[in-house]
Amino acid sequence: MAEREWAEKNYYADLGVSSSASAGDIKRAYRKLARDNHPDNHPGDKNAEDRFKRIAEAYDVVGDEKKRREYDEMKAMLASGGLRGFGGNAGSGFPGGFRQTQADFDVSDLFGGDGGFTSEGGLGDIFGGLFNRGHGPRHAAQPSRGADVETDITLDFREAAQGATIPVELKGPAPCTRCHGSGSRSGKTSRCDSCNGTGFTNENRGAFGFSAPCTDCGGNGQTISDPCADCSGTGTVNRTRSITVRVPAGVIDGQRVRLAGQGEAGPNGRPSGDLFVTVHVRGDKVFTRTGSTLEVEIPVSFAELALGDTITVPTLDEPVRVKVPAGTPDGRTLRVRGRGIPKRDGTKGDLMVTVKVTVPGDLGPAATSALRAYAQAEKESGFDPRADWAGSA
C-alpha cells in the first residue's frame, strides 16, 4: 500500500478502534474481525470477503509500529491548518495568496506528484521528508527500509486446498555478500557531522520551516570512508535469489500471502521490505468448493439409487465409502463430515456428494430383457413417475 493511498483510508475505523488504541487492543480487534469475516465462515458472500481484505489491509498498516507512526503523522499533517488552502478555500499560509480549487486538487500533489509542487520548496519536501522519500537529486534520502515486492503464483486446486511450498525466484536488490550489507569494506561507519547522525537538516524559507535529507550522507546519518567495491557503498547488489513460499492450506483464489522481510534489501544494513504473493488457483476436473466445503458430483446407476448401495467417493487424500440409502432421488446431496477443506483452526469442512444418474447408451440383450420385465412389473405395481408432477392432467 503506497503512502499516498493512506490519505483516503481510515484504518482505525475499519478495525473499530480509536487512534489512541494500544497495540494489544488493535491486535485483539483484528483477530476478532478477521475470524468473524473470514471467507470460510461466509461461503459465497462477496461483502464478507471485501470486509476481510479491508481489515487485513488496515492491520497491515496500524498493526506495524513504524507504518502506524508514519500513517498517524501523515493524517495529522492533512488535518493541520497548514493545508487549509486545498478544497477551494483561500490559500492562507501560502505566499502570494495561492489558491487551488477542489477540482484541481489531487492527493498525489501532496507526495511530490505532477500537480505543480516540485522538490524545490513544495509540499513534496514535507511528505518526502516524512516518509524518507524526497524528490530530486539534491534531496534524495535513502529509504529507512527496503522496498516491498509483489509477485504472483498459480496453484492447482488441490495444492491450494491442502497447502503447498513453492519456490519463487526474485531479481532485485539483495544484501552484498562481500560487506554483509554494511556498504563498508571494513564494516565500519561513522556519524555524519553535518546532521549529527539524524539524516536530516533544517532550513527556513519565509513562513515555512523545512526538513530535508542531509546532502552529505544522503539521509543515512552515517558516512562511509571505505566503500565496498562490489556494491559501491550501498550495501546492496542486484541478483537473483530463490524464496520458499509456504502457502497455508485453504487459501482462496486472489488471496495474498505476506512474507515479512523477504522483499528488497534495505541500503547499508537497513531492514528488508516485505514480499506479497498473490495466489491464483486453477479449477479442478472433479472438485469445486464453497468456503471450506468441498463439493463433488458422482455418477451413479438407477439401480444403485433404487436399491441402495455403498459407493467410493474421492476426497483430497484417501477415498471414502459413502452409503446411498435405497430410494435416493437423482440429484440428492449427501454430507460427509470432516472431509472438506482445512480451516485455520485445524479442523476441516465437510464434503458434499451429489449423486447424478448415468443412463447406459447401449444395453445387451440380457439387460434389455430384464429391464423390459422390470418396466412391466413397475406398471403393474401402479407406480407412475409423473403422478405428482405439476404438468399432469
TrEMBL record:
Xref: CDD domains: DnaJ (cd06257), DnaJ_C (cd10747), DnaJ_zf (cd10719)
Q: Where are the CXXCXGXG motif repeats?
A: 176-183, 192-199, 214-221, 228-235
Ranges for domain CR-type come to 163-240
Task of the protein: Participates actively in the response to hyperosmotic and heat shock by preventing the aggregation of stress-denatured proteins and by disaggregating proteins, also in an autonomous, DnaK-independent fashion. Unfolded proteins bind initially to DnaJ; upon interaction with the DnaJ-bound protein, DnaK hydrolyzes its bound ATP, resulting in the formation of a stable complex. GrpE releases ADP from DnaK; ATP binding to DnaK triggers the release of the substrate protein, thus completing the reaction cycle.
Ordered alphabetically, the record's keywords are: Chaperone, Cytoplasm, DNA replication, Metal-binding, Repeat, Stress response, Zinc, Zinc-finger
Principal subcellular localisation of the protein: cytoplasm
The record's comment on protein family reads: Belongs to the DnaJ family.
For activity, the cofactor(s) needed are: Zn(2+)
What information about domains appears in the record's comments?
The J domain is necessary and sufficient to stimulate DnaK ATPase activity. Zinc center 1 plays an important role in the autonomous, DnaK-independent chaperone activity of DnaJ. Zinc center 2 is essential for interaction with DnaK and for DnaJ activity.
* Cofactor binding note from Swiss-Prot or TrEMBL: Binds 2 Zn(2+) ions per monomer.
Any GO BP: protein refolding
The record's listing under NCBIfam families reads: PRK14279.1
Q: What is this protein called?
A: Chaperone protein DnaJ
Instruction: Give the gene name.
Output: dnaJ
Which InterPro entries does this UniProt record tie to the protein? DnaJ, DnaJ_C, DnaJ_domain, HSP40/DnaJ_pept-bd, HSP_DnaJ_Cys-rich_dom, HSP_DnaJ_Cys-rich_dom_sf, J_dom_sf
